[in-house]
Amino acid sequence: MGPVFEQVGSMVILTARTLRSAIRAPYPYGDELIEQIVFTIRLCWLPLLASTFALNLGAPGLQAAGVLHVFGSLDRLGGFFVLTAVRWIGPLVTAVVVAGVAGTAITADLGARKIREELDALQVLGVDPIKNLVVPRFLALVLVTTLFDAFAILFGLASGIAAELIYNQSLGGFFATLFSNSSVTDVWGSVLMCAVFGGIIAVVCCFKGMTASGGAAGVGLAVNQAVVISLVGVSFFNYVFTAVLLATHPELQTIR
Q1: Position 12 in a domain
Q2: 156-185 pLDDT, tens per residue?
Q3: Number of domains the chain contains
Q4: I need a surface site. Which of 10, 96, 160, 199 has the fewest CB within 10 A?
Protein backbone atom coordinates (compact mmCIF):
# COMPACT_ATOMS: atom_id res chain seq x y z
CA MET A 1 0.00 0.00 0.00
CA GLY A 2 3.02 2.28 0.43
CA PRO A 3 3.50 3.07 -3.27
CA VAL A 4 -0.24 3.70 -3.64
CA PHE A 5 -0.31 6.35 -0.91
CA GLU A 6 2.93 7.80 -2.26
CA GLN A 7 1.38 8.26 -5.70
CA VAL A 8 -1.79 9.73 -4.23
CA GLY A 9 0.28 12.21 -2.23
CA SER A 10 2.29 13.13 -5.33
CA MET A 11 -0.93 13.76 -7.27
CA VAL A 12 -2.25 15.98 -4.48
CA ILE A 13 0.98 17.97 -4.56
CA LEU A 14 0.76 18.23 -8.35
CA THR A 15 -2.83 19.49 -8.02
CA ALA A 16 -1.75 22.20 -5.55
CA ARG A 17 1.16 23.25 -7.76
CA THR A 18 -1.10 23.33 -10.82
CA LEU A 19 -3.72 25.52 -9.14
CA ARG A 20 -1.04 27.87 -7.82
CA SER A 21 0.63 28.13 -11.23
CA ALA A 22 -2.73 28.73 -12.93
CA ILE A 23 -3.57 31.83 -10.86
CA ARG A 24 -0.09 33.35 -10.60
CA ALA A 25 1.42 35.52 -13.34
CA PRO A 26 2.83 35.20 -15.93
CA TYR A 27 0.37 33.35 -18.13
CA PRO A 28 2.38 32.02 -21.09
CA TYR A 29 0.07 29.11 -21.84
CA GLY A 30 -2.69 30.89 -23.80
CA ASP A 31 -1.96 29.36 -27.19
CA GLU A 32 -1.43 25.92 -25.67
CA LEU A 33 -4.70 26.21 -23.75
CA ILE A 34 -6.69 27.00 -26.89
CA GLU A 35 -4.95 24.17 -28.75
CA GLN A 36 -5.80 21.68 -26.00
CA ILE A 37 -9.45 22.80 -25.87
CA VAL A 38 -9.85 22.41 -29.64
CA PHE A 39 -7.97 19.09 -29.55
CA THR A 40 -10.17 17.67 -26.80
CA ILE A 41 -13.43 18.82 -28.38
CA ARG A 42 -12.43 17.43 -31.78
CA LEU A 43 -11.60 14.02 -30.32
CA CYS A 44 -14.45 13.62 -27.86
CA TRP A 45 -17.62 15.24 -29.15
CA LEU A 46 -18.86 12.44 -31.39
CA PRO A 47 -18.12 9.50 -29.02
CA LEU A 48 -19.67 11.47 -26.16
CA LEU A 49 -22.93 12.31 -27.92
CA ALA A 50 -23.33 8.85 -29.44
CA SER A 51 -22.57 7.08 -26.13
CA THR A 52 -24.89 9.36 -24.13
CA PHE A 53 -27.83 8.92 -26.50
CA ALA A 54 -27.40 5.16 -26.87
CA LEU A 55 -26.88 4.48 -23.15
CA ASN A 56 -29.85 6.61 -22.09
CA LEU A 57 -32.08 5.14 -24.78
CA GLY A 58 -31.21 1.59 -23.70
CA ALA A 59 -31.65 0.84 -20.01
CA PRO A 60 -33.32 3.99 -18.60
CA GLY A 61 -35.19 4.69 -21.83
CA LEU A 62 -36.70 1.60 -23.44
CA GLN A 63 -36.47 -0.77 -20.46
CA ALA A 64 -37.83 1.69 -17.90
CA ALA A 65 -40.50 2.82 -20.38
CA GLY A 66 -41.54 -0.82 -20.87
CA VAL A 67 -42.05 -1.31 -17.14
CA LEU A 68 -43.88 2.00 -16.73
CA HIS A 69 -46.04 1.22 -19.77
CA VAL A 70 -47.27 -1.98 -18.10
CA PHE A 71 -48.51 0.05 -15.11
CA GLY A 72 -49.96 2.80 -17.29
CA SER A 73 -47.63 5.47 -15.89
CA LEU A 74 -45.36 6.19 -18.81
CA ASP A 75 -45.68 9.90 -18.05
CA ARG A 76 -43.37 9.31 -15.04
CA LEU A 77 -40.45 8.67 -17.39
CA GLY A 78 -39.54 12.37 -17.38
CA GLY A 79 -38.93 12.36 -13.63
CA PHE A 80 -36.88 9.19 -13.97
CA PHE A 81 -34.64 10.90 -16.53
CA VAL A 82 -33.81 13.65 -14.05
CA LEU A 83 -32.08 10.96 -12.02
CA THR A 84 -30.41 9.16 -14.92
CA ALA A 85 -29.52 11.79 -17.52
CA VAL A 86 -28.83 14.77 -15.25
CA ARG A 87 -27.46 13.28 -12.04
CA TRP A 88 -25.88 10.02 -13.20
CA ILE A 89 -25.32 9.04 -16.83
CA GLY A 90 -24.51 12.50 -18.19
CA PRO A 91 -21.57 13.24 -15.87
CA LEU A 92 -20.22 9.68 -15.80
CA VAL A 93 -20.31 9.16 -19.57
CA THR A 94 -18.57 12.52 -19.98
CA ALA A 95 -15.83 11.45 -17.58
CA VAL A 96 -15.39 8.03 -19.21
CA VAL A 97 -15.15 9.44 -22.74
CA VAL A 98 -12.80 12.28 -21.78
CA ALA A 99 -10.55 9.93 -19.79
CA GLY A 100 -10.54 7.26 -22.47
CA VAL A 101 -9.94 9.60 -25.40
CA ALA A 102 -8.34 12.89 -24.31
CA GLY A 103 -6.75 11.53 -21.12
CA THR A 104 -4.90 8.77 -22.94
CA ALA A 105 -3.64 11.27 -25.53
CA ILE A 106 -2.33 13.56 -22.78
CA THR A 107 -0.57 10.71 -21.00
CA ALA A 108 1.00 9.40 -24.21
CA ASP A 109 2.15 12.89 -25.24
CA LEU A 110 3.76 13.77 -21.90
CA GLY A 111 5.11 10.24 -21.50
CA ALA A 112 6.85 10.41 -24.87
CA ARG A 113 8.34 13.78 -23.91
CA LYS A 114 9.54 12.31 -20.63
CA ILE A 115 11.17 9.34 -22.38
CA ARG A 116 12.91 11.68 -24.84
CA GLU A 117 14.07 13.78 -21.83
CA GLU A 118 12.33 16.87 -23.19
CA LEU A 119 10.89 17.68 -19.77
CA ASP A 120 14.36 17.66 -18.23
CA ALA A 121 15.58 19.91 -21.06
CA LEU A 122 12.79 22.39 -20.35
CA GLN A 123 13.79 22.59 -16.69
CA VAL A 124 17.42 23.16 -17.68
CA LEU A 125 16.28 26.04 -19.88
CA GLY A 126 14.34 27.53 -16.96
CA VAL A 127 10.89 26.64 -18.34
CA ASP A 128 8.40 25.35 -15.75
CA PRO A 129 6.72 22.19 -17.10
CA ILE A 130 3.85 22.61 -14.63
CA LYS A 131 2.88 26.07 -15.87
CA ASN A 132 3.55 25.46 -19.55
CA LEU A 133 2.35 21.86 -19.96
CA VAL A 134 0.16 20.78 -17.05
CA VAL A 135 -1.83 23.99 -16.44
CA PRO A 136 -3.21 24.35 -20.00
CA ARG A 137 -4.24 20.68 -20.07
CA PHE A 138 -5.82 20.97 -16.63
CA LEU A 139 -7.82 24.07 -17.54
CA ALA A 140 -8.79 22.63 -20.93
CA LEU A 141 -10.23 19.43 -19.45
CA VAL A 142 -12.09 21.32 -16.72
CA LEU A 143 -13.68 23.67 -19.27
CA VAL A 144 -14.42 20.99 -21.86
CA THR A 145 -15.97 18.49 -19.42
CA THR A 146 -18.18 21.27 -18.07
CA LEU A 147 -19.29 22.12 -21.62
CA PHE A 148 -19.77 18.47 -22.54
CA ASP A 149 -21.96 17.86 -19.52
CA ALA A 150 -24.55 20.28 -20.88
CA PHE A 151 -24.62 18.45 -24.21
CA ALA A 152 -24.69 15.05 -22.47
CA ILE A 153 -27.77 16.14 -20.51
CA LEU A 154 -29.50 17.41 -23.66
CA PHE A 155 -28.82 14.24 -25.62
CA GLY A 156 -29.82 12.13 -22.62
CA LEU A 157 -33.17 13.89 -22.43
CA ALA A 158 -33.52 13.52 -26.22
CA SER A 159 -33.23 9.76 -25.78
CA GLY A 160 -36.05 9.89 -23.22
CA ILE A 161 -38.20 11.77 -25.72
CA ALA A 162 -37.34 9.13 -28.33
CA ALA A 163 -38.45 6.38 -25.93
CA GLU A 164 -41.78 8.13 -25.38
CA LEU A 165 -42.31 8.46 -29.14
CA ILE A 166 -41.43 4.80 -29.71
CA TYR A 167 -44.28 3.90 -27.32
CA ASN A 168 -46.59 6.33 -29.14
CA GLN A 169 -47.04 8.53 -26.08
CA SER A 170 -47.56 12.28 -25.99
CA LEU A 171 -44.71 14.32 -24.57
CA GLY A 172 -46.86 16.40 -22.21
CA GLY A 173 -46.56 14.00 -19.29
CA PHE A 174 -42.82 13.51 -19.90
CA PHE A 175 -42.08 17.23 -19.68
CA ALA A 176 -44.50 17.74 -16.77
CA THR A 177 -42.74 15.18 -14.54
CA LEU A 178 -39.33 16.27 -15.87
CA PHE A 179 -39.80 19.87 -14.78
CA SER A 180 -41.60 19.00 -11.54
CA ASN A 181 -38.72 16.78 -10.39
CA SER A 182 -35.79 18.82 -11.71
CA SER A 183 -34.26 21.77 -9.94
CA VAL A 184 -31.41 24.25 -10.25
CA THR A 185 -29.51 22.16 -7.71
CA ASP A 186 -29.56 19.18 -10.07
CA VAL A 187 -28.04 21.25 -12.85
CA TRP A 188 -25.31 23.02 -10.91
CA GLY A 189 -24.50 19.81 -9.05
CA SER A 190 -24.05 17.96 -12.33
CA VAL A 191 -21.92 20.75 -13.85
CA LEU A 192 -19.75 21.10 -10.75
CA MET A 193 -19.25 17.35 -10.57
CA CYS A 194 -18.16 17.26 -14.21
CA ALA A 195 -15.73 20.14 -13.70
CA VAL A 196 -14.06 18.26 -10.85
CA PHE A 197 -14.06 15.11 -12.98
CA GLY A 198 -12.07 17.00 -15.61
CA GLY A 199 -9.58 18.19 -13.00
CA ILE A 200 -9.11 14.67 -11.63
CA ILE A 201 -8.55 13.22 -15.11
CA ALA A 202 -6.09 15.97 -16.04
CA VAL A 203 -4.00 15.63 -12.88
CA VAL A 204 -3.85 11.83 -13.04
CA CYS A 205 -2.99 11.71 -16.75
CA CYS A 206 -0.38 14.46 -16.51
CA PHE A 207 1.21 12.80 -13.47
CA LYS A 208 1.37 9.36 -15.10
CA GLY A 209 2.76 10.87 -18.29
CA MET A 210 5.44 12.94 -16.54
CA THR A 211 6.58 10.00 -14.42
CA ALA A 212 6.62 7.41 -17.22
CA SER A 213 9.77 5.33 -17.62
CA GLY A 214 10.96 2.25 -19.47
CA GLY A 215 10.70 3.33 -23.08
CA ALA A 216 7.67 2.78 -25.31
CA ALA A 217 6.41 -0.09 -23.13
CA GLY A 218 6.53 2.19 -20.09
CA VAL A 219 4.47 4.83 -21.89
CA GLY A 220 1.85 2.23 -22.80
CA LEU A 221 1.72 1.04 -19.19
CA ALA A 222 1.37 4.64 -17.99
CA VAL A 223 -1.57 5.18 -20.38
CA ASN A 224 -3.38 2.10 -19.07
CA GLN A 225 -2.75 3.07 -15.45
CA ALA A 226 -3.88 6.65 -16.08
CA VAL A 227 -7.28 5.57 -17.39
CA VAL A 228 -7.87 3.10 -14.56
CA ILE A 229 -6.79 5.51 -11.81
CA SER A 230 -8.81 8.34 -13.36
CA LEU A 231 -12.01 6.28 -13.39
CA VAL A 232 -11.39 5.07 -9.82
CA GLY A 233 -10.89 8.68 -8.71
CA VAL A 234 -14.00 9.80 -10.60
CA SER A 235 -16.09 7.02 -9.04
CA PHE A 236 -14.86 7.81 -5.54
CA PHE A 237 -15.55 11.52 -5.91
CA ASN A 238 -18.97 10.76 -7.43
CA TYR A 239 -19.90 8.75 -4.35
CA VAL A 240 -18.70 11.43 -1.92
CA PHE A 241 -20.24 14.31 -3.86
CA THR A 242 -23.60 12.57 -4.30
CA ALA A 243 -23.75 11.63 -0.61
CA VAL A 244 -22.98 15.21 0.47
CA LEU A 245 -25.40 16.72 -2.06
CA LEU A 246 -28.30 14.50 -0.96
CA ALA A 247 -27.51 15.08 2.71
CA THR A 248 -27.48 18.86 2.31
CA HIS A 249 -30.45 18.95 -0.10
CA PRO A 250 -32.90 16.26 1.12
CA GLU A 251 -35.63 17.63 -1.16
CA LEU A 252 -33.81 16.00 -4.08
CA GLN A 253 -34.89 12.61 -2.75
CA THR A 254 -38.58 13.51 -2.97
CA ILE A 255 -40.36 12.19 -6.07
CA ARG A 256 -43.04 14.59 -7.24
Answers
A1: no
A2: 888 888 888 888 888 888 888 888 888 888
A3: 1
A4: 10
